[in-house]
Amino acid sequence: MKPDPYQASSQQDAGPPRAGGHALSGGMPLWASQPLGARFPALDVDLNVDVAIVGGGITGVMAAAQLARAGRTVALLEAQQIGLGNSGLATGNLYATTGEGLHALGVKWGDDVVEQVVRARLLAIELVERSIAEHRIACGFSREPWTLYTVTGDEDRLERIQREYNAARGAGLEARISNDLPLPYMIARAVVVSRQAQFNPLAYVQGLAHAIAGPHCRLFEDSPVLEIDADAGTVSTLAHTVRADHIVVATHTPKGVHVLHTELGPYREYAVAAPIGERDLPGGIFWSADDYATSTRLAEIGGRRHVLVIGERHKTGQQPHPEACYRRLEEHVRARFATGPCSFRWSAQQYRSADGLPYIGSTAAASNLYLATGFGADGLTWGALAGWMIADEIAGRGNPFAELFSPRRFTPMKSARNFLKENINVAGQYIADYAHGADVPSLDDIPAGEGRIVELDGERVAAYRDDAGRLHAHSAVCTHMKCIVHWNRAERSWDCPCHGSRFNYDGSVIEGPALAPLAPHAKPARREAADAAADPTLPPPA
């Protein structure tokens, strides 16, 4: 296999990702480069608790912390390692503004809702800050300004800056207009909002998890949930079952088939980080309002300063050349900062709601089932808020934001445009993929380190050949809603272009709404075994 020319020099191709873990062939996430906390055990016994939480990101762990404080017994189940999902892949920014902008939110919802959103998100930041102080979590938390800027004098961009300033001030935020930023390149105008925050999200989630763990709040890793039955009040892994009065699905998007999937658009964004000098960038959140939209921040890891930049957003499973996204982002960083090669590169997933607000709380279908999704690019702040709100609902406490963010809300006028766009896109993927033929005519045409769709006995097969030449073949039909998965070369994963489920090379679920792994396909395994028997020098089949 030819080496990836865009692979960071400090990273080596580690081969296929481990089963059930991250597809890290695209590079190492910045926050995961340091030693992680002690592992939690896998679920090895049936349990009866007040609350079962599925998912060990910021939402799940924050909910567990609040529920344990309220005296509820809790069991949290994480498929991989706590914090290493999208929370640990996040930029680590906490802010009261939103990814789509407060002005756009006001046009759709009105100024009163904008004020509520800002108040809710400010409270979420305070919740994080208080929990850090209470549990003495070392995660580099600091109060920093949030900035939206343009480098051009384009009138539309300048007007956008002014509109965001007006919206921020109208919502009670401390904001100012500036044309002078501490960046190593010129800007035309910016809006700066004071007293937002930054931290290491992985260190925070893991630190909080270890602080709250105990006999009445048990956390389990390497425990993928295969079935959620709200009617029976059960959450089941392959071998064990947790029975609970309440079930919290804190997995970034609802698991299984849910009506909310028609209201959500799954997207991926890319991140790179490179070491910089002592004076090349201060703390702060810097968002570009220009055509090439990026988010930039200073991040310290292992005692070294790095510039961290994210961008290149696209629909999950619908980018045929994801490695080019890394290349363009790295070129952007080198053009603006005095850096060497990007030491870290990774991507993460987000789910964007149709009406611009997240869905947090109990569902219409089952009052004992709680969801938190639709966070868009603002997941850390929404996630912290969601954990607190869901805990309030389970504990029977009123929450001032429950109605605004309820999954039961019905907003057809506000949702219509994005609802139609996303569902037309999904329908198009169904039609195109089932009409499209195989990527290659046979298994022999798949090079080492690559995956392709082939047709065997009339079935679509997702086949990956690892660096040792062994084949790993599974049904190409997503187990969520039967779309055809696409190969993601940068992450070495199979990604569903419809609702965002992602699968490892071994068929196991990485993330998304799918619960069941891709079904293995027997014919390639039989052929591999026959080849190995005929030639003992070949590696054994996987």
Features of this protein?
eight-stranded mixed sheet; Rieske Iron-sulfur Protein; nine-stranded mixed sheet; disordered N terminus; single chain; 542 residues; alpha+beta
What do these coordinates show?
The chain is α+β, with helices and mostly antiparallel strands. It is built from nine helices and 24 strands. It has helices at residues 58-69, 102-109, 111-135, 155-170, 201-212, 322-336, 379-394, 412-435, 522-534; strands spanning 47-54, 74-77, 93-94, 142-150, 175-178, 189-198, 217-220, 227-229, 234-236, 241-249, 264-275, 285-288, 294-301, 304-315, 344-353, 359-362, 369-373, 450-456, 459-465, 471-475, 486-488, 493-495, 502-503, 509-511. The strands form four sheets. Strands 3, 4, 5, 6, 11, 12, 13, 14 and 15 form a nine-stranded mixed sheet that branches. Strands 1, 2, 7, 8, 9, 10, 16 and 17 form an eight-stranded mixed sheet that branches. Strand 21 (486-488) and strand 22 (493-495) form a beta hairpin. The longest helix is centred in the N-terminal third of the chain and has 25 residues, at 111-135. The protein is globular, with a radius of gyration of 23 Å. It starts with 46 loop residues before the first strand and ends in an 8-residue tail after the last helix.
